[in-house]
Amino acid sequence: MNSDLRRTCFLAGLLIFGARLAPAGDNAFFPFCIDWHDAKKRSFTEQAAMLKELGYAGVGHVWLEKLAERIKSLDDAKLKLFQITMRMNIAPDKPAYEAGFKEALAMVKGRRMQFCLLTSGGKPSDPAGDDRAVAILREMSDLARDSGAQLLLYPHVNNWVERIEDAVRVAEKVDRPNVGVMFNLCHWLRADKGRNYRPLLERAMPKLFAVSINGADEFDEKPGWKNYIQPLGSGSFDIYGFLKTLGQLGYKGPVGLQCFGIGGDAREHLERSIAAWRKLQERLTALYAINYDEEKLPAYTLPDPLVCADNTKVTTAKAWREKRRPEILELFRTHVYGRSPARPAAMKCEVTAEDKNAFGGKATRREVTIYLLGAKDGPKIELLVYLPNGAKRPVPAFLGLSFGGNHAVANDPGVKLSTVWMRPSKDKGIVENRATEASRGTEASRWQVETVLARGYALATAYYGDIEPDFAEGWKIATRAALAKDGANTQFAPDDWGAISAWAWGLSRALDYLETDRDVDAKHVAVIGHSRLGKTALWAGAQDERFALTISNNSGEGGAALARRWFGETTAIINRAFPHWFCGNFKQYAGNESALPVDQHELIALVAPRPVYVASAVEDRWADPRGEFLAAKNAEPVYRLLGKEGLGVDDMPAVDKPVGTTIGYHVRTGKHDVTAYDWERYLAFADRHFGRRAAGSR
Question: What is the percent of the chain where pLDDT is above 70?
């Protein structure tokens, strides 16, 4: 990876992880087009004073004329200049852009503002002008780079760039970080006739630098601009739903208030609009609120895992197996995790290193490279396998993904150091997104390798970043792009796989290898994961029935915790912070979990009749321990139908008191982590279900 791409990955990681608890309503709000339609004809200074008094963040969509005067008035009021509007002409015999552009760039240097480009010189939406537009925009991009300004293609009715699709198409071809698009609600309503905006926004998100809103009516064939541009709070169009969708998609840029054509005293509609904006922000803030009070939980009803979509009751194992289970699996693929592909036909595995004297002779260390497409220069998974030397082979195994790389799971200097992207962490020896020798063994407490080996189990692990680096654009340099027809330019469908599905898919590819390793009993492999990788382990265990046992450690929202419980992390919060984890469809259930056709008890039920263990930590309220217990409890009817016992208790157990038979559960003392206590429970659970003798009696 070159230095520019590495820097991009680093910054993207900071943005994603830093946004985990970003408050709702953090979009800057400013009006534009107020100059021409104010009956009071206020001066720039008077406008700035009014906007400051009303609570706006600044102003936008101003023109190049009198720019210095405008900037001074805003600076004096401590307001921001968000946007300057310019004309761009793609006709080859016309000036490409206004002569004052270079002078304006000098005036706005360091202000991090935007130039909105109205385009002419071609027929609306005609791609024949793309090449000329790309050349112009790249020239302007080069000029704007040092100023820190962005260039925005502004979709406008009857312009060459008329629709948001046009803007995105051209911006993608330009392929410059300072060239993006603006979504204009009024022009979308007029030009696109009010089609579904969600897929348009999803497509635009990587290049979406600004959005404009206003009060408006739904599309009608007859109305004029007065119906499409009204003070905020007016009209029948659902602005809250629009802003909610933007939040679900992770948009954090500025929001402009379109004021064009609103007559009278500008103060009147601006005052009305800012009041409506504040009410909208209150509702959006409530959507992302964090609750830790059981008494504040709204009532909810869980879907019945034993009632089919046609309302027929499942009463036999055959009906579960042939009808209801495939139905639930399909719902999770469509609405939560997305669809993943089959094993690539060309996949190859190669043992690249082996040491039969690891840990002072207690284990054999085997390093395996899985070439996912068969090519050594293609995507690959580096799998680390430890085998107990004192146990009769083949041995059962635990398989899981790590956060820190194979070299981090134990204090073993012989393990190859990972070379792929990692989250920056000084404490874990990650420097410039790469592992160093200081990162060896930093996750040893979470893996308890020597304890696992002493109990007669193999341990297999791989770094989850081998499959996909954990940031929003990480897929572009990893497996999902490599397997997609259009590579890094792929536009995912709403039910295409997200990162969790990719990681789960990688676990199945690791199991593919273990089935070929004669030292491993591939019929007795437990898949295990912690936190987001606990979500991953559950999804892997639900889909791939070769996994004999599934373990979810502190997996929380999107894992073992019920989505319908408003406690700790919620569907809204997780989709906003980590938009790449799930499929696109899942985002529509933010704050609308009751509409989700499944819930996580049904994910656990998909593992049935195979054993499953869910674990919580009493201090990890973010992951909702009670919600994890209730999901396990509500999976019991499926296990009973299949002749298996479940938890065997009605109430959540006391701390450090594990319960359950085929479904296991405990909530332990401590925080969000994997501990020696957890491993003791998992090993005992595996012993019981794999028909092994008690610890120490090998």
Answer: 94
Closest to 132 (Cα-Cα) out of 145, 117, 122, 118: 122
Neighbours of 612 (CB within 10 A): 31
Active-site annotation holder among 234, 508, 531, 552:
531
Q: What is the DSSP string of 86-155?
A: EEEE--TTS-SB-TTHHHHHHHHTTS--EEEEEEESS-TT-GGGHHHHHHHHHHHHHHHGGGT-EEEE--
CA-wise closest residue to 75 among 102, 105, 107: 107
Q: Which residue has the tokens 């330009």?
A: 174
CA of 317: how far to CAs of 313, 321, 549, 642, in Å? 12, 6, 20, 6
Judge whether 649 and 659 are in contact, CB under 8 Å. yes
Distance of CA 564 to the CA centre of its chain: 19
Q: What is the pLDDT of residues 58-109, one digit of tens each?
A: 999 888 999 999 999 999 999 999 999 999 999 999 999 999 999 999 999 9
Spell out the alpha helix ranges (H) of 177-311: 185-191, 197-204, 225-228, 239-248, 266-287
- Token pair listed for 337: 């995790």
d(C-alpha 564, C-alpha 594), whole Å: 6
How many whole angstroms from its chain centre is CA 206?
A: 13
Residue 193 has pLDDT above 80, yes or no: no
Q: Which element (helix H / strand E) includes 520? A: strand 520-530
Whole-Å CA distances, 316 to 283, 320, 430: 45, 6, 53
413-442 pLDDT, tens digit per residue, is: 999 999 999 988 888 999 999 999 999 999
Of the candidate ranges 283-287, 298-302, 474-478, the one whose mean pLDDT is the lowest: 283-287
pLDDT band at 190 (very low <50, low <70, confident <90, very high): confident
269 is catalytic: no
Non-local (6+) Cβ contacts of 317 within 8 A are 641, 642, 643
Catalytic annotation on 601?
Answer: no
**HEC readout, 296-317:** HCCCCCCCCCCECCCCCECCCH
pLDDT of 61: 84
Tokens of 403: 């956060």
Q: Which two tokens stand for residue 127?
A: 């791609």
| Number of other residues whose CB lies within 10 A of the CB of residue 455 | 24
Catalytic residue among 125, 425, 594, 672: 672
What are the Cα distances from residue 652, in Å, to 303, 351, 597, 613, 633? Answer: 21, 45, 26, 14, 9
Sheet holding 150-153, edge to edge: 29-32, 255-258, 208-213, 179-184, 150-153, 114-120, 83-89
In this structure, what DSSP letter does residue 337 have? I
**Residue partners of 696: CB distance under 8 A and separation at least 6:** none
Question: What distance in Å separates the CA atoms of residue 250 and residue 201, rounded to the nearest whole number?
Answer: 11
Residue 72: count other Cβ atoms within 10 Å of its Cβ: 13
- Using H for helix, E for strand and C for coil, what is the string for 133-152? HHHHHHHHHHHHHHHCCEEE
Query: What's residue 294's pLDDT?
Result: 96
